[in-house]
Specification:
The protein contains ten helices and eight strands. With 315 residues, the protein is of the alpha/beta class. The longest helix has 20 residues.
């Protein structure tokens, strides 16, 4: 799918900026792609032996020209029409990148952009795709269950075609099989979201499992589940997966997340498995908010973790 990994042929990664902030309730996350680029993600990827091309940013609707009550099916999914437009555009870009033999690296923007990443990655995947969801949150609400109406809390449910997302025209659902979906490091769920995840076929590893078993064992199990019988996986990395003492520049911080070294170990395991079986179909890195950050620290961590996912190693 993406070339060999024997060291003779460098892999190509195509960076796609998706500066969307309509899915969240705090301004600033639209500057995330610029901040990650400023952290020199191209140099980080080059250190991993990656050929990197940057396709620039998608054109996205701005908050000032959007209506919070838009949406064909509901008033409890803010800016749903506008987010749907971005989703369709991003999905086409992601699918085209994969067809050209490169790996799309989507820089968010809020986590609603993951819908476009997953829909695009699943397109033309005959055996479907799995997902590993590194996040503090489940993002498993639907318009019917969301307490806020913020769509960045819904993308994984959308990819499974749950609730009203089964009937939204732009949602190519289900994009991901529930049994090949693994959430890692979860520590904050809404009540109805918790019920939905328990009833689903997705696997959830909370921070307690990481505390008890260690990050290596958890991620190895996650990779086994996500890759079983599929064409490849999408990795979604929300920076609030890490503890806010490590990454202060996120909109919805939750104490008790993974530390810096655990995060790198997790993404290094993804890269190791990818070298063996060429499984990484796409990745997104989301929820970097420079307004809330200190000295671009969160964006720097985002760039470093992306490089680890593509094979950058200490030795």
């Amino acid at each position: 799918m993406t070339g060999d990994h024997d060291g003779t042929t460098a892999r190509t990664v195509r960076v796609l900026g998706a500066p969307l902030d309509l899915g969240a309730n705090r301004r600033g996350v639209d500057m995330g792609p610029s901040a990650i680029r400023y952290a020199d993600i191209e140099a980080e990827l080059a250190a991993a032996g990656i050929n990197c091309t940057d396709a620039g940013d998608l054109s996205v609707p701005r908050l000032e020209t959007s209506s919070a009550t838009s949406g064909e099916t509901t008033r409890n999914a803010n800016y749903l029409d506008e987010i749907g437009q971005v989703t369709e555009t991003l999905a086409t870009e992601v699918a085209g990148t994969i067809d050209e033999g490169a790996v799309p690296l989507v820089l968010g923007g809020d986590h609603a952009v993951a819908m476009g990443s997953m829909f695009g990655a699943a397109r033309n995947a005959e055996d479907g795709i799995g997902v590993i969801w590194f996040d503090a949150h489940g993002d498993y609400n639907t318009p019917e269950t969301s307490p806020s109406g913020n769509v960045h809390g819904m993308p994984l449910a959308a990819a499974h075609g749950r609730g009203e997302f089964a009937d939204v025209e732009w949602a190519d659902t289900p994009a991901v099989s529930e049994e090949n979906t693994v959430l890692v490091g979860i520590r904050s769920l809404d009540d109805e979201e918790r019920v939905a995840l328990r009833e689903s076929e997705a696997t959830v590893f909370t921070m307690r499992e990481i505390d008890e078993c260690g990050i290596t064992a958890v991620v190895e199990d996650a990779l086994e589940i996500a890759t079983d019988g599929v064409d490849g996986i999408h990795v979604s990395l929300d920076l609030d997966w890490l503890d806010p003492t490590v990454v202060p520049g996120v909109g919805t911080p939750v104490r008790g997340g993974v530390n810096y070294r655990e995060a790198h170990a997790a993404l290094e395991l993804v890269a190791e498995r990818d070298r063996e079986s060429d499984l990484l179909r796409s990745i997104d890195v989301v929820e970097v908010n420079p307004i809330l950050d200190r000295d671009n620290r969160t964006a720097e961590v985002a760039a470093e973790l992306a490089a680890s996912a593509f094979g950058k190693r200490i030795l």
